């Protein structure tokens, strides 16, 4: 089940930095930057809860399911 995170897009749309995102959510610095820089990095449930609680959002705002055989999943896995 390929899942892609949309955290870079979320952070950029909010006009904040990954550092501010890390401070707001309380997640580890490495985790915040990994999620920002790698869309295939899926947040652990604990991290996902922290993000959703802090920004009062649904997980679907920062996660996207990709059809396993889609061109997007195949292209980005190369």
Summarize the structure.
The chain has one domain: 434 Repressor (Amino-terminal Domain) (Orthogonal Bundle). Helix content is 54%, strand content 8%.
Question: Rough shape?
Answer: globular
The secondary-structure element order is EHHHHEH
- CATH class (first level) name: Mainly Alpha
What's the main sheet like?
2 strands, antiparallel
Assembly context of the chains: single chain
Number of strands: 2
CATH superfamily: lambda repressor-like DNA-binding domains
CATH domain fold name = 434 Repressor (Amino-terminal Domain)
Task: Tell me which CATH architecture applies here.
Answer: Orthogonal Bundle
Q: Can you tell me the residue ranges where pLDDT is under 50 for at least 5 consecutive residues?
A: none
Q: Termini separation (Å)?
A: 17 Å
What is the share of helical residues? 40-55%
Radius of gyration: 12 Å
How many helix segments?
A: 5
The number of domains is: 1
Task: Give the strand line-up of the largest sheet.
Answer: 1-2
> For the residues shown, what is the average pLDDT?
91
Describe this structure in words.
There is one protein chain. The protein is mostly helical and 78 residues long. It has a single domain, classed as Orthogonal Bundle (434 Repressor (Amino-terminal Domain)), CATH 1.10.260. Helices cover 54% and strands 8% of the residues. It has five helices and two strands; from the N terminus they run E-H-H-H-H-E-H. The chain has helices at residues 7-14, 18-25, 29-37, 45-55, 71-76, and strands at 3-5, 63-65. It has a two-stranded antiparallel sheet with strand order 1-2. Helix 2 (18-25) crosses helix 3. The two termini are 17 Å apart. The model has no long low-confidence stretch (mean pLDDT 91).
């Amino acid at each position: 089940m390929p899942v892609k995170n949309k955290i870079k897009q979320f952070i950029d749309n909010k006009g904040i930095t990954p550092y501010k995102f890390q401070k707001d959510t309380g997640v580890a610095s490495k985790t915040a930057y990994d999620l920002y820089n790698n869309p295939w990095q899926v947040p652990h449930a604990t991290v996902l809860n922290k993000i959703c609680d802090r920004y009062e959002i649904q997980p679907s705002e920062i996660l996207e399911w990709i059809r396993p055989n889609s061109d997007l999943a195949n292209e980005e896995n190369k």
